[in-house]
Design goal:
Layout (H helix, E strand, L loop, with lengths): L1 H26 L5 H18 L1 H8 L3 H33 L9 E4 L4 E2 L2 E2 L1 H16 L5 E4 L10 H13 L6 E4 L5 H14 L8 E6 L3 H10 L5 E6 L3 H20 L4
Parallel strand pairs: 1-4, 1-6, 4-5, 6-7
Antiparallel strand pairs: 2-3
Length: 261
């Protein structure tokens, strides 16, 4: 009996946290798998905690239901474990970024704009890129990202304006890749710009992105022929960190299935 109470209490606490997390971010129009899934899982855990006796009564009415229940519970446990392992792997990988050596160009991957301004996640990427640009003052920057829904300016334009205003980076150093809507296209559409700059794919190229995104970005770049990639991890705001990592879990899996890398 005591173990059952602890299970219900644990489910209620975790369920409430996940539900409120997902609901809050969705209220900010951040609607994607990384926010919807925690909301659904949290709702399921709350239902489990509140209606446990009725659920158990229903499950044990037939042997078939009991077997399905056990399979579902073990499946959820295994999936949760795989997500936790992926989070740990992402964290360790982002901590192992090497000291930045001299590079030929800095490519900054987009991450969405909100009301004409970089999102909190994108601002962190731009802040990180600007520091690198100050350290290596002669190299160009490529801002990547097309036109977001309901926005007047492309993501690349907003990114360029941000680093000019906040870090006094000369517009003559900034090149815009303003047609793409994904990491795959960001890197693919940056190739003509690299050609204009006389930069070869086997030369050192820095790719600035969020810590949770470095592994997939590097894998996609290598698939496209980039041979000397240096990924630079920008910190993800705490409010978005775990939801972004959860979305990346599925994106990494789908990218592998779709042969993106």
């Amino acid at each position: 009996m005591q173990s059952i109470r602890l299970k219900r209490l644990f489910a209620a606490i975790i369920g409430t946290a996940l539900f409120l997390d997902g609901a809050y971010l969705i209220s900010l129009n951040k609607i994607h798998l990384g926010t919807v899934l925690p909301l659904l899982i949290g709702s399921g855990l709350l239902v489990f905690a509140l209606f446990y006796p009725k659920i158990q009564l229903f499950v044990h009415q037939t042997r078939y239901r009991h077997i399905l229940w056990r399979i579902g519970c073990w499946g959820f446990l295994l999936w949760s474990t795989s997500v936790l392992c992926f989070f740990i792997y992402l964290h360790l990988a982002s901590q192992n970024n090497a000291q930045l050596t001299p590079v030929k160009v800095i490519i900054v991957l987009g991450s969405g704009i909100e009301h004409g301004q970089p999102s909190a996640t994108l601002a962190q990427r731009l802040n990180r890129a600007a520091v690198l640009a100050k350290q290596q003052p002669n190299i160009p920057l490529i801002m990547t990202g097309g036109l977001d829904f309901r926005e007047k300016f492309t993501e690349a334009e907003v990114m360029s304006k941000y680093v000019q205003q906040n870090f006094s980076i000369s517009p003559t150093r900034i090149w815009l890749e303003d047609k793409s809507t994904s990491t795959d296209l960001n890197l693919k559409n940056s190739k003509p710009i690299l050609a204009q700059l006389n930069i070869q794919l086997n030369e050192p190229i820095a790719i600035v992105t969020s810590d949770f995104h470095t592994l997939r970005a590097a894998a996609i770049a290598h698939k496209q022929g980039y041979r000397h990639i240096i990924t630079v991890a920008a910190p993800t705001p705490l409010i978005n960190r775990y939801n972004s990592s959860l979305r990346e879990y599925f994106a990494y899996g789908s990218g592998w299935l779709l042969n993106e890398f």
